[in-house]
């Protein structure tokens, strides 16, 4: 089932309202606890859905331009509100455009997560901002947030992440191609968490029962795996994603063993802070590079694919550090930049194939 | 250390002023053929401005090792650093100088070779390129002991300063100002206050001295006065004709950016204000000929093409009388209360235009247009500065619709001339001017 009928069915069968959510990080647990369906809008990919994309200059990323076009075209009319996490300068500005200038009539909610989140001030602010967002989401949901439901939602998302982490970490023993695996993982962007959990459990049972259809492990770091043909081309060339650091996927899988706490609000803040380092939260480059190096090492990656969205400053700023990190480890790096095109260009396909051919040589050294 | 301090003080108070005076004298003696220009003779204060900035950069060369040095973003609440005796360096200001000198392509090439994208802000590419190549129009910048970053202008500065912190291996203090939709919530202001307190602790540790809270209040008072004086200078352009061009303001902005919170900065603006008022009294305008149309400029200047753009417009009697960019520094410290520098500072520095939503920006554009009697607006669509540029398409339409003024969206990059199509822009400006007839 695709998104729109699913949103309708959730409303009809469960009385669930829904919220369109822009990338990247947000407290999904709050929405779940309030019985709100989160439907993430990563663009959407492909050509902009309306002329409204032209209201944002062509030097702004396609995620933001497509999102405005999508909202303006009525593509998200099935939802009850839109949530704009404070991801970057572009989304921050986008948050005021739909309702103030484009005629979007539903509530728009910003979520201002603190940058450099390790500081005591940032922690305090995060706690307060979570409560402020909860109050606004209560209005959308038409119900009050109960602490017990919040605790249950946190436990549910912990379990989801446990399965996602297992699937990503045990990737080499999972008999699925990358397209199928990512389709599964990314359905979590719009399925009700309970439904997503059921799918994940089923997939996890297949771990250890086979292998991916390709044999050369690579680390992929970037924003969002679009177009998904990229994964097919990789597999077709003989490589598979053995380690994932996509903002849309791996960077949102919380793996940390956090200290148990009885206070669901504290648990919620802890969970936000425990996600892997992400440039959209201005993570320090040191820990992020160590995290990436660790991913590459554990997965035995023979090369690194950096796959970013053109004009995306948060990601682009880390590219030189990524290059340095892997040059020092003699791991080849392939840099791909896209604009959420529906298809990969012929040139990109050739580059991916040549890259895989290169790393498939002895040792894979550049 | 002592020798270094002597050199620093000498550069600031003796050698610098002497060299500046010498340069003045040479300039006066040099007989330059008069340049064909639509502008009135430059303001007398320009000389004092040049001297002041020259002394600032010259003393900076001897600052490291003599006094604590902080590299600071233009919107950082600098008053605490000033009080702690820091010599402050503004990489954005330095980058703009590189832009005016048109050396950005070479600097950018150097960092692009390391994997920095050309799609990153050209200020960042300019400064990192200057660090890597050692090329700078001001000789050299002193090595920082502290990096001080405030995200009230953009998130880009945080990525930029994080990179600097790695290069220099020095502490980075961050004031992360939550973006304001509508009005700031109390917990958002509290967050900024908390960060100011955290920043002070680190800045004290690096400076090896405690912050004298009384002296801090005095710096805050000076800062506010500086912003007020700057605002009054800008306001003189409400008269007809405006006594200068808004574009002059781009250059006279230097002290309120780089020396905010000092008596020297305020003294300069008193002089400038007197001169502008005198011009108003005598009916002298920024243009030589008649001021036929009055324009608003939005966004950063196109540093390398400012003269090209204004000459084209000025020759047909079009004068920029106000800009959102220069106005930002009249706002920066305007709400600070010396009696409560922390909370009022948090509010003031959070509420600058770039940290507020688009309806607020529209109100500002409309207010400036009305108060300065603008009948046209040029919105510089700056490919390097997304926070300033997103929304301009709608803002332009709304300005035209609400106020009935002519508007132009002009594509450029504020610092990198490789994104500037001179001929195409001239044609667009030409068509814009024709639309007034
Ligand atoms: S792709 Fe980058 S610039 Fe665009 S919305 Fe996402 S984080 Fe922001
Ligand atoms: S020009 Fe724009 S993006 Fe660049 S530092 Fe200034 S405000 Fe930030």
Describe what this molecule looks like in 3D.
The complex is a heterodimer of chains A (366) and B (437). Helix content of chain A is 46%, strand content 13%. Chain A has 366 residues and is of the alpha/beta class. Chain A has a four-stranded parallel sheet with strand order 2-1-3-4. A four-stranded parallel sheet of chain A has the order 6-5-7-8, with helices on both faces. In chain A, strand 1 (17-21), helix 2 and strand 2 form a beta-alpha-beta unit. In chain A, helix 12 (285-299) crosses helix 14. Chain A is globular. The model of chain A is unreliable at 362-366 (pLDDT under 50). Chain B has 437 residues and is of the alpha/beta class. Chain B is built from 19 helices and eight strands. Chain B has helices at 2-29, 45-61, 79-83, 91-100, 104-112, 122-133, 156-168, 186-207, 213-235, 246-252, 254-258, 263-282, 306-314, 324-332, 341-350, 358-371, 386-389, 392-403, 422-434, and strands spanning 69-72, 87-89, 146-150, 172-175, 293-298, 318-323, 376-382, 406-412. Chain B has a four-stranded parallel sheet with strand order 2-1-3-4, with helices on both faces. In chain B, strand 5, helix 13 and strand 6 (318-323) form a beta-alpha-beta unit. In chain B, helix 5 packs across helix 6 (122-133). Chain B is globular, with a radius of gyration of 21 Å. Classes of the chains: A alpha/beta (366), B alpha/beta (437). At the A-B interface, helix 4, helix 5, helix 6, helix 13 and helix 14 of A face helix 7, helix 8, helix 17 and helix 18 of B. One iron/sulfur cluster is lined by residues 92, 121, 123, 153-154, 156-157, 300, 384-385, 387-388 of chain B.
